[in-house]
């Protein structure tokens, strides 16, 4: 299966990058063809410009500025997001990716006033996230990133398929043991993806 891996952490020496490298390695070990999409390394521009907004509903004109990313998304059969959670949301570069690439005609289409997915070719969805907050604080805040993955993205891809969701909470108080254990969990889970 061709798996698109989206990564959005700017620091190469970070634990988030270790998770990203482990995800890539484990998916390859499982026999998947991996499309490595490191948004920072690729200098992805997350800004939805005035021009982008003016042609937002005009497919395929709306894809001209992000054609390579659209093509990669259309070829994907699996999607895994590896990202930190900042202020209970995705980093701006990842949010911008969804705003600029998951466009009308690409990820959805309006048919008789109803949204129809154009991402049914993606058979598996996964996420590997890190939070500074504890699970309780994330719960109290409504845990928007978890809801985006398990509800919004899942609904756009296939609402009846399970989602692989891995999160390391309380990064502010992590230990070498908790980091190693989570890295091992990511390794084992992605080898079964």
From TrEMBL:
Question: What InterPro entries does the annotation carry?
Answer: Flavodoxin_fold, Flavoprotein-like_sf, NAD(P)H_dehydrogenase_qn
Q: Which UniProt key words apply to this protein?
A: Oxidoreductase
Give the Pfam families listed for this entry: Flavodoxin_2
For this chain, the family text in UniProt reads: Belongs to the NAD(P)H dehydrogenase (quinone) family.
Query: What name does UniProt use for this protein?
Result: FMN-dependent NADH-azoreductase 2
**Its EC number(s):** 1.7.-.-
Flavodoxin-like fold domain mapped to chain residues: 1-137
Looking at the record's lineage, which domain of life comes first?
Bacteria
Family matches, as PANTHER family: NAD P H OXIDOREDUCTASE-RELATED, NAD(P)H DEHYDROGENASE [QUINONE] 1 ISOFORM 1
The record, for Gene3D superfamilies, names:
3.40.50.360
Keyword Transmembrane helix on entry = no
Write out the GO MF terms.
NAD(P)H dehydrogenase (quinone) activity
A cellular component term, taken from the record's GO annotations: cytosol
Q: Which gene encodes it?
A: azoR2
The species this protein was found in: Rhizobium tibeticum
Please tell me whether the keyword Oxidoreductase is annotated for this protein. Answer: yes
